[in-house]
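To whoever picks this up:

The parser on our side crashed when reading a file containing two proteins. I've narrowed it down to the boundary between the first structure block and the second sequence. Both blocks are reproduced below exactly, byte for byte. First block:
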Amino acid sequence: MKQSEMLIPTLKENPADAEIKSHQLLVRAGYIRQIASGVYSFLPVGRRILRKVENVVREEMEKIGAHEMMMPALQPSELWKESGRWNTFGSELMRIHDRSDREFALGATHEEVITSIVRDEVKSYKRLPLTVFQIQNKFRDEARPRFGLLRGREFLMKDAYSFHASYESLDLTYQKMFDAYSRIFKRLGLNFRAVIADSGAMGGKDTHEFMVLSEVGEDVIAYSDTSRYAANVEMAPVITTYPASAEEPKEMKKTATPNQKTMKEVADFLGHDLDKGLKSIMFKVDEKLVMAVTRGDHEVNDVKLKNLYSASMVELASAEETETVMGTGFGSLGPVNVPKEVEVVADLAVESLVNVSCGANEEGSHYLNVTPGKDFQVSQYADLRFIKEGDPSPDGEGFIQFARGIEVGHVFKLGTFYAENMNAMFLDDQGKNQTMVMGSYGIGVSRTLAALVEQYHDDRGITWPANMAPYQVHLLSLNPKKDEQRELADQLYDQLLDAGIEVLYDDRKERAGVKFADSDLIGIPLRITVGKRASESIVEMKERMSEDKSDLEASKVIDYVEEMYSR
């Protein structure tokens, strides 16, 4: 393609609202442009990258027997109400009304639509298992779109769905999909980890996220320093054991703690370490009020709390709700003398504590010498806290370290959640009605593009891996006004195209410095420069990731390029 005929609007400066490298560089290099907050257009070179990611995904999906289809982005609310997610998915679901006031959603995901199709079309076990996928734009009403393509309101996604007659069949497809995802991200050249994850609003269980390691990632990964164990920090179980204290319980007493609100402030005021205090937080678990208690140096993990109750929703109780029931604000909450309508649960670390402090449910007051079982009762002890760096790895090998990651893929075993709610049945080999078992598998195609840039860039621009670059060669004619340079560059351009090599030909009437800067910014792996030695049929070769330059006879350029891309 000739650059003079293309829309590649490069910029010298970073956009004012771009906080991370992928956002800055994709805008500066002319790959994307923002249309509204969290909504982007992909310009021609950006679309080429998306297509390359899509092609890798398609190839690996088809290898495991998944078949591509296309479903509507506009989905009737009735389907979401059948599954029960119309009210539980949350405010991210974009809801609209047509001129007849009928409710629709812009597709954030397609479990409901595909389940409705398969339940109507597949009636026998002989048609199962069945796996389909699509690559389509999705919509989510993000409260705070940020980080460019990493958190947007509209994004490109590959979603796949599998239907089975048994859980054993689901297990087989899940493993095939897991392996296919691993191959996809390896082919794309990404440094990633597959981590144990929470299914969230998707439903189901047994899920893994595929995380690209990056300091700008919004998710924290807990991984073992000696084994392959890795999990989203919210899903990592704590296997630390807590020996019983040898202290004798003392008599509980109340003390004033004026203006001390945080655990650190209270601990410093009372003169003890954080682990000698209790942290009490009020949650609404579905409609039930629950006080979750941890050690002062630990944090309540709301995902573990949700799983403990098999709840649909867990959220912090409001200040008003807490004040009404407990008679005090957040800073003075504690598990002593809690009203009957509030259930108290505690982390396993709490059970062995003796003579600790806690809020007295009275503004500006705390109890000292509090001991569980003696001074307050707990309905159940469970693993309720976030794992910490240095804790034993849940697989028993090594200790936990943290890293940040960008989620680019997620695989779920949905089980029968959607099939039961939406009556997706089939006849088994005995002629009896059975409920279908489902899996769901997603890849954020546009997020993957951003994740690539986060891992492949330097201070001059993007440094695409060879198989993902928009073009294989960036051909520069430094001075097209000179006949010998223009003619040699034109000749090379035709030869490269005839050899099946993807080439971007910078034939613009721009200064050499502008062309070099744009070439580095766009990030194509190999630059061929036609300059002062054109009359000798000599060109300059430079790989993007090297500072070395070399002169080469024009007749040997095709062999050089083919050899480079066969490494």
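<<boundary where parser fails>>
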Amino acid sequence: MDQTVSASVFENLDPARGYRGLRAALATPVAALCKAEKGHARRTAAVDLFRSVLAEGRARARARLEARGSGLECARRLSELQDELIGAIYDYVVTYVYPADNPTFAERLTIVAVGGYGRGMLAPGSDIDLLFLLPYKQTPWGESVVEAILYVLWDLRQKVGHATRSVAECMRQSRADMTIRTTLLESRFILGSAELFTALQDAFDKEVARSDAREFVAAKLAERDTRVRRAGASRYLVEPNVKEGKGGLRDLNTLFWISKYVYRVRDPQELVAAGVFTSAELSLFERCEEFLWRVRCHLHFATGRAEERLSFDIQPAMAKRLGYQDRGGLSRVERFMKHYFLVAKDVGDLTAIVCAALEEKQAKPPAIFERFMQPFRRRRNKAPKGDFIIDHDRISVADDDVFHRDPVNIIRLFWMADHHGLPLHPDALRAVTLSLREIDAELRADKEANRLFLEILLSRNMTEIILRRMNETGVLGRFIPDFGRIVAMMQFNMYHHYTVDEHLLRAVGCLSDLEAGRMPEHQQLVSEILPTIVNRKVLYLGLFLHDIAKGRKEDHSIAGMDVARALCPRLGFTPGETETVAWLVEHHLTMSSYAQSRDLSDRVTIESFAAIAQTMERLKMLFVLTVCDINAVGPGVLDAWKSQLLRVLYWETEVVLGGGHSSVDRKSRVAVARTELREALADWSDEKFDAYEKRHYPAYWLKVDVARKVRHAHMLENLTGAVTPLATAVELDRARGAVELTVIAPDHRRLLSIIAGGCAASGANIVDAHIFTTQDGLALDTIFISRAFDFDEDELRRARRIAEFIAKALRGEVIVSDAVKARARQNQAPTAFTVAPEVVVDNSLSNVYTVIEVSGLDREGLLFDLTNAISKLNLNIASAHITTFGERAVDAFYVTDLTGTKIVSPQRQSAIKRQLLEVFAPAGEKRPKAVGTGVQSVAAT
């Protein structure tokens, strides 16, 4: 179909009326083609015309949106376009395909938009939900018309959800099915018999909507909870779902569904008259709706599909499309996402407001809030008096003037909720949000207010929940302005799962749970250390502030020290306590870095870290802070291996700080580890076990857990007497969501490179590596790779294939480098992230080895390329420490030259750096520039 025809149709429309009139405008070109063509050719021509009109209409809506247009306007225009197109298709079918000159009463047909389409708003990739409404049962003519309309829509590649029912059938099914009831709640007339549609609405109001509203409200809120759990329980996940996620469009839809059902309103503006919203809250609802629709429409157009998730790879493009710019230390993508999370928070506030109004109307059971508090219940104190009351078993305000009369009451409200073990009434939270102006410099300086806040932070009851309520109402950001700067701030990386403020609250919650014994999976890690910390308020505040300076131009650890030094005196901390909090903020990443990227069996590593820790009290606090920090990054990030590394670093440093004495010294721990393995290998003779234990160095005994030691023992036993010992084994590591691949082979300098190459050639992503050598010259290497399949059987088959490929490579049956190159040619996936590569060559970190630390953008096959380059440089890798922080890889290699000595020549160090930087250069491009000098020729002591 000539594109000029579809374009001319739109040119004749009144711009002020959007796409209204398109149906009538199409009558002439449809009549012309039907006159010119017959049979199948006529249908093809009609579909081509409708397709070109649909494409032109969508293109015009997209152009208006991308010219800084409104998201709601775009959604409404697309809905209008769909209405008019369906009308034109209907006219074509009943006029030229199945004409009915004198339709009977039973052949009346009404087309109704339902569900999301029924709201009169349609996203570019959304489904079209239609109800073909009949007066009685289906007739042959009506069935043919409906089928013809659907076939045209399907030929246009539209996703159509449809049903054909009579009014009576609609009533019967909506009474039994809450989903159908919801779709009918938003039904909208498109064309056909208006009387039939009115009959549907009247019947719905009389027979369904007047039934107990509590049932509908409870069902919709339960449905919301299920949906939120499926999409991610937090509204602060860094890759949110715009439609289904917490704080997304579906939450606004749910609020309006409930309001329509309970208050019988048909427009959000009527909620003001109904007393649900104030005018300001209605404006907030409209702003949230506009923003989320604008994001959703842009997202669908940008991806070319019904994509609802703001994934990392699309966030930069979305930020650009929406006009954000770099500013104030934040990139435009971080500014865009911060705006998104602030809107999600506002949606949460609106949800609480509607729920409070429903309770007043007795349309919703108040117990809906109780589920948040059950794990934290304790014996309640006496009921609050004076400015506060208990309403439906929740803390509320006695009158509207409570916070103006005494602004300290804002902080006291949250303190009382925690102190009495009671949830906060939505009315009280609403009153807080309307009184935020009362939180000024005078209140921030008030001793009582600061005392109450510190008690909340140090509470052993509901710390995380209360702090989150303070944050969601805006109190936390006003009372501590530096916290306000990081509210809803995301970090554009794959490592952190949550926004910065949510991460801090989860970290504090983790510490509170550890103290209360509510985290059995990590309890043993800190059980002996946490109770011995003398000053817990220093630890809590250090944890609360450790990331508070994120998003600034300077290093957040350094800038955070200034924040700590300013805030601590306000909270009544002594100068000594203030400096310790500042020290914790400065070094909150240090212990994790040492544990994961340094050789903990090297004495220089331990002495260097001990010099930073300085005292046992600081070591204890930093250890617990690190555990909580890593755990709060995201589910499963604090795995068994990281926990063991932190534990070993703590033990080793404890010995140094204790002057060589420790509650559990190194020799004792090695002895305990040997005893544990001896007990696990009870069927071995003493002679056999004694010979076996001599094969391992102390580092092995300290770093490997008992289950793995048992597996290794059996593997090594099976190799006894082998001329060329080689063995592989695979295990599922469910705690880490990874696959464990163990290789035992004669040690040589290219071994790790071959293993890494085998993984790369097989498409396996390496997330960690444990490298050990036995005293009789065997390498015992364990590689951890990401899972690729949901089912264990599939994953184990894949892992065994990878292990077999590595075995073939070690036997010389395949050439690893060729297989890796072939894989790379097939899989050059783009990434949304850029990480400047850096190489540091350091001789001060070990008495025996040169440490090469390499960081840069992680990718498939990176470890192979790095280890291959190191082997080509004639360096021997004694140990490797593989770490990934989302998209950033940080790998440390302890190396010597082939004579077993350090690399001291500046020229040789520069060559190493140059070769490793070239690993990060895309094929055919020059090597990337390094960050800083990257080479440290520090003599070993």
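After patching the parser it read the second block fine. Residues 332-360 form the longest helix (29 residues). Residues 249 and 542 are 37 Å apart (CA to CA).
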